[in-house]
Amino acid sequence: MDIRKIICGTVLGAATVAATAASAQEVNVYSLRQPFLVEPLFESFTKETGVKVNVIFAEKGLVERIKQEGVNSPADVLMTVDISRIQEAVDAGVTEAVDSDVLETNIPAHLRDENDQWFALTQRGRALYASKDRVAEGEITTYEDLADPKWKGRVCTRPGSHDYNVALISSMIAHHGAEEAKTWLEGLKANLARKPQGNDRGQVKAIKEGECDVAIANTYYYGKMLDDPEQRAWAESVNIVFPNQDGRGMSMNISGMTLIKGAPNKENAVKLMEFLSGDEAQKIYAEVNYEYPVKPGVEWSDYVKSWGTFKADELPLAEIARLRADAVRMVDQVGYDE
């Protein structure tokens, strides 16, 4: 089965993929990550091991698909983004633990599930973006600063209910407790320049257009905007700020992977997961989307390195996942998206 025929956004039927599952030299991946991000990794894995990677790509709904397929699912590995989406798969009961010394060695404890149900592949930070023209360097340095009344009418964010912001709010609950985190979120809402809307890049565009002065967005979008001729001016209008560098560090999120329960090609699936945690794959995967490797010692790309180094918050992502429901309720309680 040719990987390019599967990976280019076409979702094939389960029966079609299942027909290939019997081969000992194949592994089936369900991926919410875009094809251009994962294809180089799988090509390298196949070249090294001889194991062919079959991919089903979709923007959403893969966990539900696996549940519907049940014991007949051809899925071996699920690749997705954001700790909440990874935890969704675990909570749905479609994953199983992986006993691997390689994964435990390559991936720090705070970036994998304590019960080995999921493992991080790359990291991205939840950064602040500040107008070069209207915000002095050092004027905003922490997430907590976003609730300072001095920023009233000057902050833009995407909806608080989006997974990226839910994870940030979860980290605020973990560090400050629910009461203080709620006060912070109310303060942030009071400082919004407009109703929460759009995606992360849309917030930086709003800074460029003068709608606000400060925004929250993931670090890798900075690279994406700089490399897009139509969006470069947005990125050039801001400074990227790594928050809380004198304290706990910048809040981090991940892309990650899980082994699917009853995987028909389990041995090859674990082999692929271990490969993805290794030096070569970590470098490729992080570079292609301007992200940060999870394996210590793997060098950042020169492009990402040019943005500066930072201290990362090492709060276990399992804790963020545990507090997700509390964060979602808090968004509703303060009427953040209204």
Quaternary state of this entry equals single chain
Class of the largest domain in CATH?
Alpha Beta
CATH architecture of the largest domain: 3-Layer(aba) Sandwich
- The number of helices is 16
Helix and strand run: HHEHEHEHEHEEHHHEHHEEHHEHHH
- The overall strand count is 10
Supply Rg.
20 Å
Query: How much β-strand is present in the residues?
Result: 15-25%
CATH homologous superfamily of the largest domain - what is it?
Answer: Periplasmic binding protein-like II
Mean pLDDT: 92
Give the N-to-C terminal Cα separation: 48 Å
Helicity level = 40-55%
Binding site for Fe cation: 220-221
Keywords: Iron, Metal-binding, Signal
Protein name: Iron ABC transporter substrate-binding protein
Pfam family, one: SBP_bac_6
Write the layout of secondary structure elements.
Blueprint: H1 3-7, H2 14-18, E1 26-31, H3 35-49, E2 52-57, H4 62-69, E3 77-81, H5 83-91, E4 95-96, H6 101-106, E5 119-131, E6 155-156, H7 163-176, H8 178-190, H9 200-208, E7 214-218, H10 220-226, H11 232-236, E8 238-241, E9 252-260, H12 266-276, H13 279-288, E10 292-293, H14 302-305, H15 317-322, H16 324-333
Parallel strand pairs: 1-2, 1-3, 6-7
Antiparallel strand pairs: 3-9, 4-9, 5-7, 5-8, 5-9, 5-10
Helix pairs in contact: 3-13, 7-8, 7-16
Signal peptide: 1-24
Pfam families: SBP_bac_6
Protein name: Iron ABC transporter substrate-binding protein
How does this structure look, described?
- This protein has helices at 3-7, 14-18, 35-49, 62-69, 83-91, 101-106, 163-176, 178-190, 200-208, 220-226, 232-236, 266-276, 279-288, 302-305, 317-322, 324-333, and strands at 26-31, 52-57, 77-81, 95-96, 119-131, 155-156, 214-218, 238-241, 252-260, 292-293.
- Helix 3 links the parallel strand 1 and strand 2 (52-57).
- The radius of gyration is 20 Å and the shape is globular.
- It is an alpha/beta fold and 338 residues long.
- Strands 1, 2, 3, 4, 5, 6, 7, 8, 9 and 10 form a ten-stranded mixed β-sheet that branches.
- The model is unreliable at 1-23 (pLDDT under 50).
- The protein has two domains: 3-123 and 253-305, D-Maltodextrin-Binding Protein, domain 2; 124-251 and 312-333, 3-Layer(aba) Sandwich (D-Maltodextrin-Binding Protein, domain 2), CATH 3.40.190.10.
- It is 41% helix and 16% strand.
- Belongs to the bacterial solute-binding protein 1 family.
- It comes from Thalassospira xianhensis MCCC 1A02616.
- Pfam families: SBP_bac_6 (PF13343).
